[in-house]
Write a structure and sequence with these properties.
alpha+beta; Immunoglobulin-like; C8orf32 fold; Jelly Rolls; 8-stranded mixed β-sheet; 13 helices; 39 strands
Amino acid sequence: MKKLFVLLVVLSCSFIGYAADLKYPVSEIPSELKENVDAVVREDQIIFKILAKDKATFYAHLVVTIFNEKANYYASETVGYSKLIKVNDINGYVYSAEGKQIKKLKNSEIYDRAAFDGFSLYSDNRIKAINLQQAIYPYTVEIEYELDFKYLYFIPGSSWGGEKVSYQNASYQLIYPSDLTPHYQLLNIDGLPKKEKTAEGLESITWSFKNLKPIKLEKYAPSREIIPRIIAAPSTFEYDGYLGNMSSWREYGKWNALLNKDRDVLPEVTKRKVREITNGLVTTEQKTKAIYEYLQAKTRYVSIQLGIGGLQPFPASVVDETGYGDCKALSNYAVAMLKEVGIKGYYTTIEAGEHATQVKTDFPSHQFNHVVVAVPNGKDTLWLECTSQTNPFGYQGTFTEDRWALMITEDGGKLVRTINYTPEQNLQSRTATVSLDINGNAKAKVRTTAKGIQYENNNLNWALSSTEKQKKWIEKNTKIPNFNIISFSMTEIKDKIPSALVTLDLTLNRYASVSGKRLFVSPNLMNKISSIPPKMAERKTDVILKTNYLDLDTIQYSLPENLYPEFLPEPVKINSKFGEYEASFQFDAGKVTYIRRMKVWKGRFPKETYNELVDFYKNVSKADNIKLVFLNKT
């Protein structure tokens, strides 16, 4: 009996010890967080500690349960470092669904390499990368690491949420001396922070959240604006010996100007060359265009990340000598050449990219990833994209159009707005003649001009590089079933608003369907609205239309003898707050002419108008898909 009691005690202690070793079992996740998700973030902890105006530490702790391969990216982590960022420690663990540890990261499994991105010529940045991916689901990964920062220019923020991800626990903590209090904003989520003093006498502020459910992203929505996140930035800071502050855009701009000071000196031979190429030119625009095209011919873009190279341009003399530079160096070089001929160009930082996050104008901080040059020209501003060897002079396009940028002036930083292209500047104009035969086959000659962002979004800049690419582009973008190419041509027109002319000579097999003595023809040759977003009973976010554009189509159908329209549809006219649409038909001397005009305005519209947008596109689609019926009277 005593032996049995001892055995039971031993077994009981063994069970307790085993249970104590289990971590993050899936069974501990609330059931509502597991519904229709790819992953559940069990812990997301960020601690940023400011020690001095040029010193800080960063701690990250992430635990994620991964339910399928779509969330495997959570099992990988890449940590960047440089001479100003030191990695103190990286730890990683993997747990089974029951919570048993099945893997511990080894030092030999931490991949350490240069942070080469394919564009950087020089870089002292490096990365440490790990991958804890497993083949059996669900599994849980735990990753933590610590960094030492030898600067206080940027404070990492945090975000929580996604369509297929829920969060069980999340926290974000800032620790700082009272004289270095950072500024911060909590966005798209409510939560009062916990404020306290640390044992070291520092201030501490912490936001904590529990049981955050997945976010449903909506069509035409400002998706990046609805993700819960926190942003932070220093007040006073020092970066590689350069002291500055982010109390205002003006002050932050002064710091940028300090980085650029005395870096605009050109060799005498280049000064003479710049004066020579602008000699005889009268206007600011003419001179700026000449210098920009000289820059394009002389230099090429290469990213350079050395020391403070991620923020400070190489001197203009270095770019002049080597012929290469990154966006900062090339823009600084352009400003220096403009200065030589008496034109004031401004070094301007901007968040570039078609899907760039909108700048928080009420939150002075580092929110930019690119540099361009702004040249005031009366009531207008000329914008120079100095990294492109092919960009037309003055064209911004989707990369930098219609957004806030920080112009670095003599008086500090000044927020300015870039070009917002009108619908007429983003024009697609098409004319076509289509000759039908009695069997429904046709021949078509099509002439299309795509301009501005329509030129860009249609990838015409890509297609123009070779005949093979041109043919592939035509095959992909000609929205006609059963066509054959007889001949084609594509011509680029470089201007401040670039465009391309595409001419096609096609045969259209069975373009019209035949039923007895009737032919059924879709008059809208290749520009139909077919995708209609679904209606919603309850919309949560505003409606965003991203591009102004104008489409003009004139299609003329030549009919064989004895073929007449049985009837012509009435003209269609649709007006809404989102755009305008018109379509009409004319019959004269054996020819039917179809004319279509559609203009759409970009903008932000109240969420209550979403179903009006659906109705607008539905009505347009109905008009676009109307059929003409021709009757054979023989």
